[in-house]
Write a structure and sequence with these properties.
Blueprint lengths: L4 H10 L5 H9 L18 H6 L20 E8 L11 E7 L5 E6 L5 H16 L5 E4 L8 H10 L2 E4 L9 H20 L5
Organism: Lithospermum erythrorhizon (Purple gromwell)
GO molecular function: nucleic acid binding
Protein name: Integrase catalytic domain-containing protein
Length: about 200
C-alpha cells in the first residue's frame, strides 16, 4: 500500500496532533482502529504544532517518594476556569494520574466544588471493582482539595493526603505534564482551524 504524505498529516491531525513517535506506537500496538502502517520519513512539522506546543524550559527533576504498585499514589490537579463551556457543561478539567502506571483519568467538571464528588466516586469504583487500595494522594493547597470532605474521606479510607509546597507546581510534575499535553492538543486543533482560543 502506497501511503502519501497527506495520510500521515491526516492521522496526525485526527489524533490531536500526536507526534510521529506516538503514531508509530499506536500502530505498532494496534491501539487505533483503522490506523494504517504509515511511512514517517521526511515528515514536515505542521504549523499548528509549532504554534500550539511552545513552552518554557522545564525545571530540574525533583526526587519525591513514588509508589511501587498501582494506586499507591495518585497525583491530582484541576485546570480551569475555561472561557467556553464544553458540550457537556464543563468549565474545569480534573486530572488524576497514577504514579506507578501513569494511567490518567481526565474528568470534566462544571464547578471546582465537584472535584471531591468525582474523586470519591472514582475511588469507590476502583476499590470495589479492582480490589486495589489507594494509599496516598498528592495535591496542591487549592480549596477544592484542602477541605473537610477530602479530609473525612481520606481518614475513612486510610488514604494519606500529601500537599505540595506552596507555589511549586513542579512537585506535581506528572499531572502538570498531562495537563500541558491536553492544553497543547486543544490549542493546536484550535490554531489549525483558526478558531478563537
Amino acid at each position: 500500500m502506497n501511503v502519501v504524505h497527506d495520510d500521515v498529516s491526516l492521522w496526525h491531525r485526527r489524533l490531536g496532533h500526536a507526534s510521529i513517535e506516538m503514531l508509530s506506537k499506536l500502530h505498532k500496538h494496534s491501539h487505533v482502529k483503522g490506523l494504517p502502517n504509515l511511512s514517517y520519513k521526511k515528515v514536515k512539522l505542521c504549523d499548528a504544532c509549532q504554534l500550539g506546543k511552545m513552552h518554557k524550559y522545564s525545571f530540574k527533576p525533583i526526587n519525591l517518594v513514588s509508589s511501587n504498585h498501582v494506586l499507591g499514589l495518585l497525583y491530582m490537579d484541576l485546570f480551569g476556569e475555561m472561557d467556553v463551556e464544553s458540550l457537556g457543561g464543563s468549565r474545569y478539567v480534573f486530572f488524576i494520574v497514577d504514579d506507578y502506571s501513569r494511567f490518567t483519568w481526565v474528568i470534566g467538571l462544571a464547578n471546582k466544588s465537584d472535584a471531591f464528588k468525582e474523586f470519591a466516586k472514582l475511588c469507590r469504583k476502583l476499590m470495589n471493582e479492582k480490589g486495589f487500595k489507594i494509599k496516598a494522594i498528592r495535591t496542591d493547597h487549592g480549596g477544592e482539595f484542602e477541605n473537610e470532605e477530602f479530609e473525612e474521606f481520606c481518614g475513612e479510607y486510610g488514604i494519606q493526603h500529601n500537599f505540595l509546597a506552596p507555589r511549586t507546581p513542579q512537585q506535581n510534575g506528572f499531572v502538570e505534564r498531562k495537563n500541558r499535553t491536553i492544553q497543547e492538543m486543544s490549542r493546536t486543533m484550535l490554531n489549525e482551524h483558526n478558531l478563537p482560543k
